[in-house]
Amino acid sequence: MESLRRWLSMGFTMGLLPLLMSCQTAETGRETAAIGSPPPARVLFVGNSFTFWRGGLAPHLETLSDAMDPPLGYQAEQVVRGGASLEVMWNQTDAQDQIASGNFDVVVLQEDLPETDIASFRKYSRKFVEAVRHAGARPILFMAWEYDRLDWISLDEIITAHQHMADQLQVEVAPVGLAWRNSKIQQPDLNMYARDAEHPSVAGMFLSLMVIEGTISGIDPVDRVPDALPIRGLQRLDGDALQFLRSIAGQSIRQWNLQPR
What we know:
Layout: H1 2-10, H2 17-20, E1 42-47, H3 49-52, H4 57-67, E2 75-80, H5 86-92, H6 95-101, E3 106-111, H7 118-134, E4 138-143, H8 155-169, E5 172-174, H9 176-186, H10 202-217, H11 239-257
Parallel strand pairs: 1-2, 1-3, 3-4, 4-5
C-alpha cells in the first residue's frame, strides 16, 4: 500500500489507471457527488487570479453549462482578488458575507500556496469550510500548482497539504495541480502555463475547468463538452488536444479519489 501511495504522489500511475478506474471510489471514505446526479445550480468561486485569469472560471462554467444539450443549469459567481491567499480573502473581502447570504450549493475555495504558507492554508481553509457548511453549501478545495517566481514549495508539498486538509475536514478536493502534472508527463509540449510561467495558458485554464466541473458533478469530463464551446482562446486547441485534456481531467480525479486514506 505504501508503494502505491508513492506511485500516486509521483504521478507514475498513468499506465495503471485503466485497472485502478474499476475500483470503487467509495473505499476512500471521501464524500463525492453521485455519478449521474444533477449538478448543483449555484456555485461560488473564491480565489485570486488563478480563478479569474482568462475570463474567469465562473463565467466559463456558465458557458459550458449553456452549451450543453440540455443545459446543465449552472449559475456561477465569484469573489476574487489578485494575489490573495485564503487568509486575505477571509479578512479583506466580502467572501464570508457572500457565502452566508448567497444561497449557494457549492463553494470552490482556491488557495495559492506559494503566496502564503501551509499554516495559513490550514487555518483559513478550515474557517472557510466551516462557514460554507454552516451556510448549507458544499465546500471544495481547488488545489492549484507550483510556479518558478515563488519556488519555496513543490507540487508534492502542495498535494500533501491538500491531502492533510481533505483528511482533517473530510472535504473534497479538485486536484487541478495534479492534473497539470499528469498532462505535462504525457504531453509535455502542451504547456499549462502562460508566458509569465505562473498563470494558466488556454490549455491550463481548460484543464482547470474540466477538473473542477468533474469534481462538482461526478460526471466524467469526457462527457461534458459539446462539439463547440464558445470560450475565448479555446480555438487555439485542436480537437485532439481538447479530448486529451478532458481525459486527463477524469483520470486525475479518479487518481486523487483512489489514494489510500
